[in-house]
């Protein structure tokens, strides 16, 4: 996996092979990045915009990628930053307090024609929406994607201890919400 | 997972699956849509500068800075204090011209000519005395014996 990515990076940095290598990179990571973003913004159209922005940014900054982290970690970090920037811009546009995009995201969830979960899954998503952005991000990455704390630490630039605490708090809050809305 | 069962039993009962779906053929088409957008972005990007321009850039920048300093200091002085600048400039020019003239004369003449010029100017000074003044100067500064000796030598 790592050697595959190293070869891909070398091709991406070579002007003659860049286009083809970029196509390979998109094909390889588009789904994982899509679901990572989708779980944060919920709506498909927003996810599509953010995913495109993520790959455009990757294209523009591949020359500066110093391979201090794995390609996967680097891509996740860009996607995460793009997602947070998008959510913050929505908050600014709707004049919401910086920690509260819940209403906007709940509307996104309800109006999304591509949501096909049952009642309990809708409830779980509502509970996740009530979490602060960072906790939501950590919970999604751990609970759904099962990303290791060490890797998550590199992506989010946060210590493993803080991530574990964040996940624990998030799980407790969700449990409480599920219990109270029974 | 067992930790989650203990801490959040209700959460652990929920089936861990994505409740979302994507439009048909979304991932198949995504790459080509991205490619179209990338082409637009590439056209909007500034073209990379040539190597010569990149190498000369620091020197050009330095020259431009000097020019800017000159324009910001000299030009306003010239515009707002024209009299002061004119005076200074003429003084500098005069000094340089006089110095140049003296130097060129000194370079051209040899030692003999130089002393001849000096003695000429001395004669002129002597011519300025009249006989009476000369006589009184000699009688007051020299004894008769000294005058006799000088006359005898000649």
Order of helices and strands of chain B: HHHHHHHH
Largest sheet report of chain B: none
- What is the alpha-carbon Rg of chain B in Å? 50 Å
Could you say which overall geometry of chain B the principal axes of the C-alpha atoms support? rod-shaped
Nearest-integer average pLDDT of chain A: 87
**Cα radius of gyration of chain A in angstroms:** 17 Å
Q: How would the global form of chain A be characterised?
A: globular
Helix-strand makeup class of chain B: mainly alpha
Question: What is the string of SSEs of chain A from the N terminus onward?
Answer: HHHHHHHHH
Helical fraction of chain B: over 70%
SS content category of chain A: mainly alpha
Mean pLDDT of chain B: 76
- How large is the count of helical segments of chain A? 9
Count of strand segments of chain A: 0
What percent of residues of chain A are in strands? under 5%
Largest interface: A-B, 40 and 26 residues
Helicity range of chain A? over 70%
Domain RNA polymerase sigma-70 region (chain A): 25-93
Pfam family, one (chain A): Sigma70_r4_2
InterPro entries (chain A): RNA_pol_sigma-70-like, RNA_pol_sigma-70_dom, RNA_pol_sigma70_ECF_CS, RNA_pol_sigma70_r2, RNA_pol_sigma70_r4_t2, RNA_pol_sigma_r2, RNA_pol_sigma_r3/r4-like, WH-like_DNA-bd_sf
Keywords (chain A): DNA-binding, Sigma factor, Transcription, Transcription regulation
